[in-house]
Amino acid sequence: MGLLRLLTKDPLGFALVAIPLLFSIIIHEVAHGWVAYKMGDPTAKWSGRLTFNPLKHLDPVGTLMLFVAGFGWAKPVPVNFKNIPDRRKGLIFVSSAGILANILFAFAALLFIRLFSTSSSGIVLVLVYKVCPYVAQINIILAALNLIPIPPLDGSKILMGIVSQRTQYFLARLEPYGFFIIIVSLFLGILNPLMGLFRWVIVTLIGILLP
């Protein structure tokens, strides 16, 4: 992602980028909690997680990984699917919400570039050429990463809302090892083709929506 290079070469530019990038992770988690709340589960609301206050969401390791590896995570928003009348719909909609939020954030950043790339304002040009490209890139990567159907990523929860109970049980049993599997797979490049496919789909969709 070049974020560490940006820190060493342009500390001011890094500062301008860091805040919206952290917000990208936060909006992902808030979207999960908000949709769960709308579907009948108040757990996230009662836990004080329906807020954009970074202190309520940030995971130290996940934040560090964002800038080191180009992807990261926040503390998962607590969701109790037992409070949602239709559990399968809950799994699909709640899990999809974070992905959709990142796609919409990327779309907004690219739309801003499209609308203001010819502006003569210094501040606007800084946003257009320094902040928005990073915002779009990181949100597309976050959305693509979370579409991977390996627990605990959102893609696995979406899949659990579709497959049989036996497959749901298998995915649930896999979850304690999922984080290790994801890290190793990303390091070895095993997930690169799938990530590339998801990124292409997202970018194509955004391209269709952009005026």
Write the layout of secondary structure elements.
Elements: H1 3-9, H2 11-38, H3 43-46, H4 60-69, H5 87-116, H6 122-147, H7 154-160, H8 165-188, H9 192-209
Helix pairs in contact: 1-2, 2-5, 2-6, 5-6, 5-7, 6-9
Helix-strand pattern, N to C? HHHHHHHHH
**Helix/strand/pairing category:** mainly alpha
How many structural domains in the coordinates?
A: 1
Largest sheet: none
Number of alpha- plus pi-helical segments:
9
The span between the termini is 27 Å
The tally of strands reads: 0
Which word captures the global form? Answer: globular
β content, as a range? under 5%
Roughly how many Å is the radius of gyration?
Answer: 18 Å
In percent, how helical is the residue content? over 70%
Uncertain stretches of 5 or more adjacent residues? none
Description:
Helix 5 (87-116) runs antiparallel to helix 6 and helix 5 crosses helix 7. The chain has helices at residues 3-9, 11-38, 43-46, 60-69, 87-116, 122-147, 154-160, 165-188, 192-209. It has one domain. The protein is mainly α. The mean pLDDT is 86.
Name some characteristics of this structure.
mainly alpha, 211 residues, globular
Compose a concise summary of this entry:
The protein is mainly alpha-helical and 211 residues long.
